[in-house]
Specification:
- This protein has one domain.
- Helix content is 33%, strand content 21%.
- It is built from 6 helices and 6 strands, in the order H-H-H-E-E-E-H-H-E-H-E-E.
- A 6-stranded mixed β-sheet has the order 1-2-3-4-6-5.
- It is globular and about 40 Å long.
- The chain starts with a helix and ends with a strand.
- The model has no long low-confidence stretch (mean pLDDT 95).
Length: 196
């Protein structure tokens, strides 16, 4: 079986939208967020989307899940055995309450090895011994129309990754989804690049 990165990007966009329709509620016992996929944390959103994909596309996702990097204890967000090793990063310019999220773009832009940003993930993937193809996926939510456009942070990520860190990224794939139930996180985008 094969799967293109473009297919994976679209699969996750559709899965995030499907999860949103179930009106998930994230947060902690002390602080509950309003319903919707937008306020969920990165790990929770990926987990719920993967559970959805295991139902709708079991032939591709039934064996997928987090895996350790070969020879280390560090975990890769999602591995489709024999196909892809994927690192995900969530970006949200606004919080559940509608206030600007001050450091939201750091999730993609910090250019240091060992950092948990998308650039740090690319460096980690590049040096890994995964036999699978490697990719980074950035997903996020914004107003409709955007008050702060995710595209600006994504363009900056590409520039820093390639021109500052010397990474070679494949073609950018993007899938958009809208009609989300949250009053702030009204639409979403999923971006993906192969790390070459």
């Amino acid at each position: 079986m094969t799967a293109s990165l473009n297919e994976l990007v679209w699969d996750f966009a559709l899965a995030f939208k499907a999860v949103d329709t179930s009106a998930p509620i994230g947060g902690s016992p002390r602080r509950r967020y309003r319903p919707g996929i937008g306020p969920l944390g990165e790990r929770d959103a990926i987990h719920r989307a993967l559970e959805q994909l295991k139902l709708t596309k079991p032939e591709l996702y039934s064996r997928a899940g987090p895996r350790s990097y070969p020879g280390t204890r560090a975990q890769c967000d999602l591995v489709l055995p024999g196909l892809w090793a994927l690192e995900f990063k969530l970006i949200r310019p606004f919080g559940d309450n509608g206030d600007p999220a001050e450091h939201w773009s750091e999730n993609v832009l910090h250019p240091y090895e060992g950092n948990t940003s998308s650039i740090g993930d690319c460096l980690k993937l590049r040096e890994s011994r995964f036999s699978e193809r490697k990719a980074v996926i950035v997903f996020g939510y914004e107003h409709s129309p955007p008050r702060i456009d995710l595209e600006l942070a994504v363009m900056a990520f590409e520039i820093v990754a390639e021109h500052v860190n010397g990474l070679t990224l494949g073609e950018r794939y993007v899938a958009e989804f809208d009609g989300l139930i949250h009053p702030v996180h009204q639409q979403g985008r999923v971006y993906g690049w192969e790390v070459l």
